[in-house]
Amino acid sequence: ALTTMYLHQQLTSIENLPCELQRNFTLMRELDNRAEEKKCEIDKLAEEYIRNVRNLAPDQRVEHLQKIQNGFSKCKEYSDNKVQLAMQTYEMVSKPKVLELEGQIKMEEMCFSQFLKMAKDSAARIELGRSFLQEGTYICS
Hints:
Layout: H1 2-15, H2 19-52, H3 58-135
Helix pairs in contact: 2-3
């Protein structure tokens, strides 16, 4: 039940993401699908090559291996594109969060410095009061 609730929350949060983030996640999913399809294609080409290698002429072998190599190159291209897209998506999400956290830190620093100032002022007043009490002098306003 807890896992289902967590999954529902995650899906809801993804649905509420800005359009550009949704677009990036969709593109990453498409790149994954393309890469997976290309891997299947490479596997078939490799199996075919292994099955027929003895019957292929040298130029056919080179051509077949070139097809396999091109498939791997395309897979790498898909992966590189996905990494770039993931980095862009991370930047989109992290920059506003970093700015928000920086603002919170500045606010906390201001509050803390005001607290310290008030504490120092209070401590100074207390110390002044003690010194007057010890000397037996009082200030009347």
